[in-house]
Give the backbone structure.
Amino acid sequence: MIFLRTLFIAVVLLTAGCDREEHRAGGATAVVLSPENVLIVTSNYPLYFFASRIAASVDDAPGIILPDIHGDPAFWIPSAEQIQLLQSADKVLLNGAGAESWLNLVTIDRRLLIDTSLNIADQLIPLDDSVQHQHGPQGEHSHQGDAFTIWLDPRLAVAQAHAVTDALIEFAPTAEYQFRNNMAKLEQELMALDAQVAEVMAKLEGRPVLFSHPVYQYLQRRHNINGRSLHWEPDQEPGTSAWIALQQTLATHPATIMIWEDLPLQTTNHKLAEAGILSVPFHTAANRPQEGDYLDVMGANVERVAAALQERSYSEK
Amino acid sequence: MGNALFLGWRYLTHHRFKSSILIASITLMLFLPAATRLLVDDSASALTARANQTPLVLGAHGSELELVLSTLYFHAESPAPIENQTYVEVEATGLADFIPIHSRFRAQGAPIVGTSLQYFDFRGLNIADGRQMGLLGECVIGANVAARLGLGPGDSIISSPETVFDIAGVYPLKMIVAGVLEAGGTADDDAVFVDVRTTWIIQGLGHGHTDLAAAEAGAAVLSRRDDMITANASLTQYAEITPDNIGAFHFHGSDNSFPLTSVIAIPPDQKNAALLRGRYHNSDLLQLVVPGNVLDDLLETVFAVQNYVIIGLAILSFATIAVITLVFLLSQQLRKGEFHTLRRIGATRGYVLVLIASELGFVFLISCLSAAALTIVTRFYAMRILQTFLTL
């Protein structure tokens, strides 16, 4: 039976396109399969990164898997094979805050689910930009929830990582010391990142900033950024109405920096530059980065923002 | 001796009508009490086995029997629904494992059972062909449903509208068969299993439609304000959940208010079971029942009725024997000439007695064999007959 399960997991990993190399995070090799054959699936990359770091070099650690998700994990709809992987997992680590919209679409044993943001539910930011709609006699309704890019506030990310640590200890109690030791190191790195971001964002000094999409709520709250969110996609050309709306926004919110999830189209970038707005990609790292790990991505984000601020001559105090 | 048996057999075959009536009477006389007892005993064993396998059932206050039959056999007459909130709350107690059941709807004659994956582990149900249901709108079907409708993985089955004349009612949902369960000889063989949220979509509590904020929805939009879009009647809801449109499916309101038929509770020990029972002891809205006890009460009544039936059948049998004896004696009177002729042509008195006895023997032998055959057939179909009655 154990052999069959191992075989099944191996097949799923192969079909999901995950090789052993991809299970490396931040130079530390994540354990793919433990001797106990326990399997933990994560629903986004930050959780995978935290779990991999905490489990790094721990012999009895469970296997940790991030399914091969194309695009934003918030819009992930698992394939039949991935559903089988989720159903066969021993635990599924969730970001929570409504990030896993697929939970409403997939049949899974609820006992497997661990919501890593459950203990910080009171610190979640409710979304307030949903559009209500009505059809039939059922009345008005909207599809709203909380902002879910929690990990953009490293202090909240630490809380999530603690939930991940508890889950790992549950499966390998004998390795608790190692897990907690790794967690302490991770916490130091995350808090260092927090300090680094804070130092750069402080240079904004309350000057207005635009966000291309409402996904930076936690970053904004953490560093008191005077920001407003648009609904622009980096890979789509904004329509005329979007440019008009931007002009209206700029009238009351004269931003000169716009933070994007990814590099925008050249034409968009050029038009924005003509309007005096500098585009700065700040990747959320929700999905597995092509290069480096979570900390590398965040570090690069900070460097880009710092460079943009320097270009805009926001002097250091 | 051999000649006497031959003559006896020939007599019976010559008087086919009379012989058939005699055989039929004796067959029924033997079959009815035996079948009644066997049917009741087998049904009782099957009922108590499934009931005893189900420790506790939580449902709305009302008929305990209806609640148990609906949960165990997906009886068509559903008890009053309970809110999903009840399931969420009781699950939060951690006193047991809990399995939601929502079995209000049917698909092509089979009950649709909305539940969780735990149900399959709990009942020991394995997939014989295909895979476990994974996405909303997928189902796994019992072995009998697959055989009856000729369905397999990849095929689809459509939910039945609750009423034919309910034009504004719930649209039928086309469900994809993900897998077929191994036959287990239980009510699960005749059911269609879906995720409980799929039953909520069948009920109209969730649905999928074009994004009203998108340009393609233009014709279906009645009015559009800053934060409010109202659709007109032309907005089409998807009747099938596919990988392409599944992202558009959503539920209205909180799922805490959505309905369930019942919740199966599986406490780890007697203490937790007692704590759970105490929790709902004085509830006016909910009841927590032990299916074994409820069915024991039912079976007590059934056994009492069975005893009356058997006494009635015994009296009837006595009357039948009396009538047969009378017919036989009268027949002997009528055949006096025949016996006299036999004696005149050299048959001994013993030969005539053997001839008469052989006729009787053949009648009883054929009757016994027929009754045994009927009993075996009845026993073979007993569970199917029982399940048909229970799911009606």
In short: Chain B has two domains: 2-47+298-391, 55-290.
